[in-house]
Amino acid sequence: MPISDRLMFTILFLKRTSAPIREPGRQASSKNAVSRGELRNPRPSSEFRPVARITRRLLALRPVCRLALRWSARPARQLDLEASRLPSVCRSGWPVQGPQDIGCRVRCILFDFGQRPLIVAVCLLTLAFIVRPSFADPRIDRSVETAAKELVTPETQQAIDAGLAFLAARQDSRDGSYGSLASSRRRVAVTALAGMAFLSSGNTPGRGKYGAQVQKAVDFLLSRIQPNGFIFDDGNTGHGPMYDHGFATLFLAEVYGMTKTPKVRNGLQRAVQLIINAQNKEGGWRYEPDSKDADLSVTICQVMALRAARNAGIFVPKETIDRCTEYVRKCQTSEGAFRYQLTTTWQVTFGLTAAGVVALYSAGVYEGKAIEAGLQYLEHYRPGLAMRQPSNHYFYSHYYAVQAMWHAGGERWRQWYPDVRDELLQFPFHTTAGSWRDPSAYGDEYATAMALLILQTPNNYLPIFQR
Fold it and tell me: What's the whole-model pTM score?
């Protein structure tokens, strides 16, 4: 078979058979979720097949070849005696009337290229320029997104299943809230985090094994939205009610992005507007909506909520994000760490640094000196280094740290997740009942929800965690 015919056959075959590429292992990760359609808009894999990509680039090159042939003194329609042996449809001229004669056009191009060396050189250079990016973007290593089945080992999945069952059993059957301790009973933030743990396993309101629990959590939070949009429970606002509001808004934004329920959208819009209105002069947020100063710990909760809401289609002013980004940058020290407030120089921790890096990612800052310096600082607290681990805010710190490394990708993620996974599975506070005990005062439901969010990060189900 002549080389022109073989090339024509290959291009047509690849064009007709190359289907959208999905993430390996993702469809089988949650049988209940996929079979019932809970997982909306699965993301295409970032490991593109080079041959299929090159084929698409070749087909996109047709306009260039068309211009080259028109410029030529002997266009395809005026080929001389040798061209008469080509099919008649190839002699009808450009543009191509349909996909059925693409192969003939390719043969015409190849024939004319043999007569026009200058055209060959121009088009080959153009082709090299177009095709080159299809192999890989050296700035981003996306191969880790395909390794969820390897990262979430059977032992890990067993621990996840036990943790989800624990959360389902601990939900208040009357109103759907969470919190067994007096300091965390009916706590809005704990309820939101438990709901996100269920979402991370592929459940949505009313769908999936734990769809009923998710729906109850949504109903509880919607019932706690005040007329001004503030989400809190009168019985227990906890330490810093804006923490509760931020996590609750984040959860509702994730739910709305998956379901597009009008009732959720209405409550979400009011909650988002309160965050926008509560931003103070420093550019951040504090414990109360009317606070005059800001701290990074509360600010990260609001940034992630705003990012999730914007992803779901809720309007967020660019000025709000710009002011917040400036505040977060000011909190970073020369060593790359992040401090609690602008007025303090000594309150620098692993957890706050992880929160600062994630805040920048959430604000749309994906690279630069601030990100790199923050990631390098976090490396000193790699899981497994027991002497350096935070004792009081362990789950809080690793909740943000695993997100920072997930967004960073590459070797950092490949090393970090297995380490934190193994540490959580052997954690002294991991109980035989499937829960995790919290060394602070927020309760086992909080610790279990945080641990489940960390362990399920590779699932890539939560929109806010997706790259």
Answer: 0.70
